[in-house]
Write a structure and sequence with these properties.
Elements: H1 2-21, E1 28-32, E2 38-43, H2 46-49, H3 56-68, E3 77-82, H4 86-95, E4 99-104, E5 129-132, H5 136-153
């Protein structure tokens, strides 16, 4: 699975770069089914869409759900460049995603391992396998460069 993890994360990084080019926080997400077929992919689009829920993870989930005709996505894996926030972690549970692979921790808003452990809540009726650190250096550099450039403009 490691080669596939790197391949799908590379696509997430491409999507994140596209987001950065239009001024969005550089996050990209790809959702694949149990056979490794891409069902949905997205970049952050909150600013352009004027939508606080337009995170890359939510966009990929929406696209995948529409593609398969079901809001449940069992057997799927979501790849994302940055640790999901509380909203996105909750959406993964509701969609019944089997596995989450993320590149970099998000020390301020990450809700999987950094500021909260949303997916570990014993009250939840669905468990998600988590793999972190795939292409971490590239994802961290992308975020740092984006925010460095943003600060330099102000």
């Amino acid at each position: 699975m490691e080669a596939d993890d790197r391949r799908f994360m590379a696509r997430c990084l491409e999507l994140a770069r596209l987001a950065a080019q239009v001024g969005e926080v550089p996050v990209g997400a790809v959702l694949v089914d149990s056979l490794g077929v891409v069902q949905g992919e997205a970049s952050n689009a909150c600013i352009g869409a004027h939508d606080p829920t337009a995170h890359a993870e939510v966009g990929a989930l929406r696209q995948a759900a529409a593609a398969v005709g079901n809001y449940r996505l069992p057997g799927s894996t979501l790849y994302v460049t940055v640790e999901p926030c509380t909203m996105c972690a909750g959406a993964l549970v509701h969609a019944r995603v089997d596995r989450l692979v993320f590149a970099a921790r998000e020390p301020k808003a990450g809700a999987v391992v950094s500021t909260a452990q949303v997916l570990d809540n014993p009250a939840l009726n669905h468990r998600i396998e988590v793999t972190m650190g795939v292409c971490e250096d590239e994802a961290v550099a992308l975020m740092q460069d984006f925010f460095r450039m943003r600060r330099a403009r102000t």
